[in-house]
Design goal:
Layout (H helix, E strand, L loop, with lengths): L6 H15 L4 H4 L6 E10 L5 E9 L5 E8 L3 H4 L3 H8 L3 E6 L18 H11 L4 E10 L1 H10 L6 E7 L18 E2 L2 E2 L1 H11 L13 H10 L7 H5 L4 H5 L16 H4 L7 H4 L25 E6 L5 H10 L6 E6 L13 E3 L2 E4 L5 H14 L11 E5 L4 E5 L9 E2 L12 E2 L7 E2 L7 E2 L5
Parallel strand pairs: 3-4, 3-5, 5-6, 6-9, 9-10, 10-13
Antiparallel strand pairs: 1-2, 2-4, 7-8, 11-12, 13-14, 15-18, 16-17
Length: 449
Amino acid sequence: MARAPSLAGVLVLAVSIPAVAQRADLLRRLGLADVATMERMIMVPMRDGIRLSTAVIRPKAGDRLPTVLVRTPYPKEGEVGAPLFSRLVREGYALVIQNERGTEWSEGTHRFLAGARTDGYDALTWIAAQPWSNGRVGTIGCSSSAEDQLALAAMNHPAHRAMIPMSAGAGIGAIPGVSSQGLWYKGGVPQLGPWAGWYVGSGHANRPKLPAAISQDERIRLADFYSANPKPEAERYGVASVSGAIRGDTTLGMLGYLPSGQVLRASGAPETDFDTFMTMSPADVRWLAIDFIRDGDKPRVPALHVNGWHDIGAFETLKLFDYLKDAPYQYLIMAPTSHCAMTSATANYKTGERPIGNAALPYDELFVKWFDRWLKDKPSDVLSRPKVQAFLEGANGWKSYDALPVPGARHCRHGQGQGDAVPFVVGARHGRRHQVDRRLSRRPSLQSV
């Protein structure tokens, strides 16, 4: 005989179902329920038969709409929560949010940037063929959803009219002056902490999938009740989680594990590209299989590149902008911020505890104007803006330049003391000691320009 549920159990059920199912009310949370429609869990086929989970939000009024595309490995609703996206819909844009292969409910195996070129191209083709599309698509995103844009731009799809990649350094492979292979290396050394932290939570090759033959309605219902994402850290590892150690909750934690290429497997994580990448050198031919933008690519898509000086890929962004100097309509903004923090900079901004002044820009207005120009043929002053707009800390203000490298800039060597190597001991917990030369390399500077 079945046990009757306790009152506590009924209360838990009553609370948890709406919490899980709240994804269905995204339009209301975006303030768009009165002006837009949303279609979810559209399984868009790629050229190899793999289908990618896609959502479309579009205004109720109007047809033949310009479209803004976001391709991401993360939950879709998290990509369009910023006020910019609601504004775009209200100003007549359709939004298409698509999960990369192997992420969320998209089919296939997840590999780093896999399909950035061909899947992205097929997504553009699908959008341009929709009866509600005007055939013009812009792309936007920060971090993963920006890195995805770079190799796609190299395909020069006729529908891809404009892009806004922000903090996109990990999408850059080997170009003149850069060989960090998507930020995997600095000075030829793998960046263990940042990448172990990302892969343990976001880079799993295999995830649960829904049955292929079910209806779209059933797919939506299942997606509202189940998650394709990893459990929270506390459930997976307890207090001493791998990424907790990476963030400094313990001194070296799991990062002191040797050999370091097996740190994720030792922590219990499932298969990721981390396991393979840690066996590769910067010149390994296997990097050619990754969908980076790289030397030889010639994208022609108008681009507004945005990054921050404190981003892990700031240097790579500058070198990419220089590499694209012969491509039409390339613009750059460098803010005094860290990864994906550019649009949140304020009029009284601080770097750490140091006030540096007004670091804010009207990003939303600029982004809408950018897409208006290329997707609607709407006249504006967006092309008269400076090619390079950079915030200079020390000068505490925005400066404008016609190009990079900036004419007259001096090269400065930054180091410690008299240039001697500073020993830094790692791995001592496991009985091995390594000394690392922490001198900084020679890099161009905008000092006194």
